[in-house]
Design a protein that fits this description.
mainly alpha, about 80% helix, about 0% strand, globular
């Protein structure tokens, strides 16, 4: 891989970290902002700081190797299929990142929460098909299904159950609004920290693969630890306001108790995925499903199911859209490189 192509992958990885910050990470405090537990400026500042901390903790906790990066991104078979053409793999990384970025920006504009991981895995499927690495499909599809089951499905069920408990305690006057708002702030911070630990791995893994392909020791990519963490935090500070409105206001008329339950559930799911299973799951998916679960616990009419349906449709379209984009782009590039 040429030095120019390596630099391009590193630059796009930083852009992806920044976009991920305002698209996904700022959503960690969407319910806190909507229920006025914190002001918008304070909430985004807290999320940015804890995303920075989480990203540094998450990146420092992993052993940075090419095998780790390929396994994390589901690109082992793609790397094997392009072993004789380093530039093709480099351009494939560029295409996958651009496809992910394009979908992130589109869904942000539409105000729909979507998963950076699902978008990238979809692009990885399209790329694997373009380079003839069909063995990668079961691996990537398995990662997609695992992330979906652990995040949105379990998150919504657990959020529903916990919200029912909170409602029962509230009726017996054992729960007051002050402690709930404090707990909501703490849980929002936990989501932001867990998001940093999870999602900062994606851009770093891209750089690790590019370095290994260029003949540079994978450990050299550790110089990107701080820039990646800072990029996620900077994007969070800007705030993805369109998606914040969807999660905090359009899905349901959110109360402080619902916000606390949704964020606590999302934080638990993210922590379990990162620490327990070393599996990437989506903050947006998990938090969105948890908000729906907490709203449904109060009553079916409490959830705006039209908005929830649009959100789920976006989730289903995410890997398909990025797969098509990556497939077409890699086929065109393969003839040019």
């Amino acid at each position: 891989m040429s030095p120019l192509l390596l630099a391009l992958v590193a630059l796009l990885a930083l852009v992806l970290a920044y976009v991920n910050g305002f698209h996904d990470a700022s959503n960690a405090v969407s319910t806190t902002i909507s229920t006025r537990a914190l002001s918008e400026r304070a909430a985004l500042g807290l999320a940015a700081l804890l995303n920075l901390l989480g990203a540094l903790l998450g990146l420092l906790a992993v052993t940075v190797t090419a095998d780790w990066a390929l396994r994390l991104l589901g690109l082992t078979h793609v790397a094997e299929a392009t072993a004789g053409d380093a530039d093709l793999l480099g351009w494939a990384l560029v295409v996958m990142t651009l496809a992910t970025l394009a979908w992130e920006i589109l869904t942000w504009w539409l105000g729909m929460p979507s998963s950076t991981w699902h978008a990238f895995f979809g692009a990885a499927m399209g790329t694997s098909l373009a380079v003839g690495a069909h063995e990668a499909w079961p691996v990537v599809i398995g990662m997609l299904l695992g992330a979906t089951l652990l995040g949105p499905l379990l998150g919504s069920v657990l959020s529903f159950a916990v919200m029912r408990v909170v409602l029962a305690l509230g009726r017996s006057e054992r729960v007051r609004i002050g402690p709930i708002r404090f707990a909501q702030t703490v849980s929002a911070g936990a989501v932001a920290t867990a998001h940093g630990m999870s999602d900062a791995r994606l851009p770093l893994a891209l750089v690790v693969i590019a370095c290994a392909t260029a003949g540079i020791p994978a450990a050299s990519a550790t110089v990107m630890l701080l820039p990646v963490a800072l990029a996620v935090a900077a994007g969070t500070l800007v705030g993805g306001h369109r998606i914040i409105r969807t999660l905090g206001r359009r899905l349901t008329s959110l109360s402080s108790a619902q916000g606390m339950v949704a964020e606590s559930t999302a934080a638990a799911m993210l922590g379990l995925a990162v620490v327990g299973f070393d599996m990437p799951i989506s903050t947006s998916h998990t938090l969105g499903a948890s908000v729906v679960g907490a709203g449904a616990a109060i009553g079916r009419r409490h959830v705006r199911w039209t908005v929830a349906g649009q959100m789920i449709l976006t989730w289903l379209l995410t890997p398909l859209a990025t797969a098509v984009m990556a497939l077409v782009a890699v086929i065109i590039l393969r003839d040019l490189v």
